[in-house]
Design brief:
By secondary structure, this protein is an alpha/beta fold. It is built from 13 helices and eleven strands. It binds calcium ion (CA).
Length: 468
């Protein structure tokens, strides 16, 4: 009894780790120098990876801002989150988010710049962003921290989301001749310049992360802080963002966690960004909610990953204006994609006059020089036509790619008899996992469950993020 009383009178110093979560907007794998990407320089990301773990197979839940961020915050796949399965939606209160759970457990929580979103929270009676109270920066957040409290900070950014300042990459000194152009794009000066402008913003995000790391180091807090750096999905280029190919769904991930992750760790197993919420809760001594489909990041046993997409923009013809629902399973050897609506256009319908509220062609793909050039030149040659179709044409109900010989996922072998058996195995595995985790699309209720919700992104011919 005496010991218990003493413990109450003199609580131990709070040893729970701080959490610094840094998330870029539209930053895809492998666009960091430590992955071997030439031209772009990411010293902060590289440092965290060197002093902790570099992940080679990290995947989002959905390659679209709002559902990806909702999945990170709740630790659940987006198909469990009702309207939050869509871009420009809302996140109902029934879904607990890790920053609120940590705040209730005594953590000082907050965010800077882009957090959950885009969308509307007042329609679900949320008064604060699910990532925590809004601050003007990491300095302001730390100045408001109560003495002795561990913190949980969301360092957001709108980099490298479009639009870009034209030629900002080249003007900053990048050598365009060193840029690696994916084989899905024409290799032209405009495309190289577009990639350099994207890298320019990646580097700006990395500098913001570097400043936060230096501050923690100066304060003597870096060693008691879990630092995570990643992106919400792939880059805003054709066949990137909004797609289930690696170019849309695979993201950079580095984690620095002294005492738990050894410096120089290389992780080649599959992890989902839904794993972050349960990992953070466990680090704080809190049991993850049963609703969370993610698992601890310290578990390195996963040999596959699943992810998917509902509505990004309402880019189809009126009146349905729905999305292009898809689900995928990715292993080291295969990528298998199920397209539930092969009748719809995966990058948006081609004719802006057919009534979609954005009034643009192919509006499910962000506008920019690469997209514009690929569309303008689509009939110039068989090669330009092929590239155009890989990004903008309709897709069959099933896609299967052999990653050993086709890492860019260009040749669909779903109809090749030789691969029928493996395709059926992957399909069965995917559907079983989707059904187990309550995916209404896999259960046959997708339209009713996800498509009836409003799109809060407006119209008037402007797509969110299009500034050029
Ligand atoms: Ca994004």
């Amino acid at each position: 009894m005496l010991l218990a009383a003493a413990a109450v009178l003199q609580p131990p110093v709070d040893q729970r780790p701080n959490i610094l979560f840094c998330i870029a907007d539209d930053w895809g794998w492998p666009h960091a120098s430590i992955y071997g990407e030439p031209v772009v320089e990411t010293p902060a990301f590289d440092r965290v990876a060197r002093e902790g773990a570099l992940f080679h197979h990290a995947y989002i839940s959905s390659p679209s801002c709002t559902p990806s961020r909702g999945a990170i915050l709740t630790g659940q796949h987006f198909w469990r989150l009702k309207q939050n399965a869509n871009l420009w939606s809302s996140l109902p209160q029934e879904f607990p988010v890790y920053p609120e759970i940590l705040e209730n457990a005594g953590y000082h929580t907050g965010h800077w710049r882009k957090a959950w979103g885009p969308g509307k929270l007042d329609v679900v009676d949320r008064t604060q962003n699910p990532a925590g109270k809004t601050y003007g920066g990491f300095d302001q957040f730390m100045a408001a921290r109560p003495d002795g409290a561990p913190f949980c900070f969301w360092l957001g950014a709108s980099d490298p989301h479009r639009g870009y300042a034209l030629d900002s990459g080249e003007k900053s000194g990048m050598d365009l001749s060193e840029i690696r152009v994916p084989t899905t794009f024409p290799d032209t000066p405009e495309v190289r310049g577009d990639i350099a402008d994207y890298f320019f913003e990646v580097q700006r995000f990395d500098r913001d992360v570097g400043a936060a790391l230096e501050k923690l180091e100066r304060m003597g807090e870096l060693e008691n802080t879990i630092v995570v750096i990643t992106g919400d999905h792939g880059w805003p280029f054709p066949r990137g963002k909004g797609n289930l190919y690696d170019s849309g769904s695979r993201v950079p991930l580095a984690v620095r966690w002294p005492g738990k992750i050894a410096a120089g760790t290389t992780r080649t197993d599959f992890v989902s960004l839904t794993d972050l919420a349960p990992t953070f809760l466990l680090a704080a001594g809190i049991t993850p909610r049963a609703s969370m489909t993610g698992r601890s990041l310290l578990d390195d046993s996963s040999r596959h990953i699943i992810f998917g997409k509902e509505r990004h923009t309402p880019a189809q013809e009126a009146p349905d204006m729905g999305g292009t629902p898809m689900r995928a399973i990715r292993t080291k050897e295969y990528l298998y994609i199920m397209n539930f609506r092969p009748d719809r256009w995966p990058a948006g319908q081609p004719d802006p006059m057919k009534g979609n509220i954005l009034g643009q062609w192919y509006s499910d793909c962000d506008n920019g020089p690469t997209k514009l050039q690929m569309i303008a030149n689509k009939d110039e040659s068989p090669v330009s036509r092929r590239l155009f179709e890989l990004s903008f044409a309709k897709r069959p109900a099933e896609e299967l790619y052999l990653l050993g010989t086709d890492p860019e996922q260009l040749v669909n072998v779903a109809d090749v008899p030789q691969y029928k058996e493996i395709k059926m195995q992957l399909s069965a595995r995917l559907v079983a996992e989707l059904v187990r985790t309550g995916d209404e699309r896999a259960l046959g209720n997708g339209e009713a469950a996800y498509e009836g919700f409003p799109y809060f992104g407006g119209g008037g011919g402007m797509k969110p993020g299009f500034k050029r």
